[in-house]
Amino acid sequence: MSMPPPLPGDPSDLHLCISYDDDLWDTPQADTLERWNVAVLHRRSVHDDVQEPAATSSCATAECSSCRGEDTIVGSMTFYRVHLDRGRNAYWAMEEESEELYETAQVLLDPETGSFTSEVSELLEYVGSGLLVMDRVTLEPAWRGHGLAAVLGCEVIHRLMLGCRAVACSPGVTDLSSQGLTDRSEWERVTAKIARGWESLGFRLYRDNVYLLSPASHDLEEQHGALRGRLAELGASWRTRTS
């Protein structure tokens, strides 16, 4: 098995900017669907005198007065918090928003009521009434192959899952151009690898490529700590390699 190329920067310097743009629209659709945008940022040190990136450790002192922090976007995520108990029927709100959300609604929700189907309800503990959908997770190619998507996705889930009874996702490849996945077998291999990453958090296939995770899952809580440890290990390894 080939090893992924080295990371382009210290992963310990990654951080997330999670935002919700509220247009204050007094509409049933806006009351039902909240779109949360996540920017994955990498902070690096830039020397003002030469205007080029450099590791802080290369400075004469630990806090070089010529350095300033600069954030670079290295990925993005999109989540939807779906309120099943307010606004319009959530099934049709998701249908109107996007094809991907509609496919999830068709598997999980009753079109008549907009609530979870009875079959889905039986699988989930009642820890809230909402649904959190992990719609898209993208990292720049240089940051892939090290399990960072699961690390970062887990952090966002922990921040947005409050009040939700389930978290859903549909693992797959969206950036076909950069992956160059023209061969069907290679496409299936990469898709399966992505699915395994989300399964490590506790997601389980329910039906038609829709995976479900309970916010009350012990797997999720255990993996949250383990993935933070993994991030620390990656950072230590990167610093050892570049020192």
Folded structure, characterized:
This protein is an alpha+beta fold and 243 residues long. The protein has one domain: Aminopeptidase (3-Layer(aba) Sandwich). Helix content is 36%, strand content 26%. A hairpin with a 2-residue loop joins strand 7 and strand 8 (210-213). Helix 2 runs antiparallel to helix 3. The model is unreliable at 54-58 (pLDDT under 50).
Summed up, the helix count is 8
What integer value in Å does the Rg equal?
20 Å
Strand content: 25-35%
Main sheet: strands, sense, barrel: 8 strands, mixed
Number of strands: 8
User: Please, how many domains?
Assistant: 1
Report the order of strands and helices.
EHEEEHHHEHEHHEEH
Ordered list of secondary-structure elements with their pairings:
Layout: E1 14-20, H1 28-32, E2 33-47, E3 52-53, E4 67-82, H2 90-97, H3 99-108, H4 118-123, E5 130-139, H5 148-160, E6 164-169, H6 176-179, H7 184-199, E7 204-207, E8 210-213, H8 218-242
Parallel strand pairs: 5-6
Antiparallel strand pairs: 1-2, 2-3, 2-4, 4-5, 6-8, 7-8
Helix pairs in contact: 2-3, 5-8
Structural features:
single chain, 243 residues, alpha+beta, Aminopeptidase, 8-stranded mixed sheet
State the gist of this model.
With 243 residues, this protein is an alpha+beta fold. The chain is built from 8 helices and 8 strands; from the N terminus they run βαβββαααβαβααββα. It is globular and about 60 Å long.
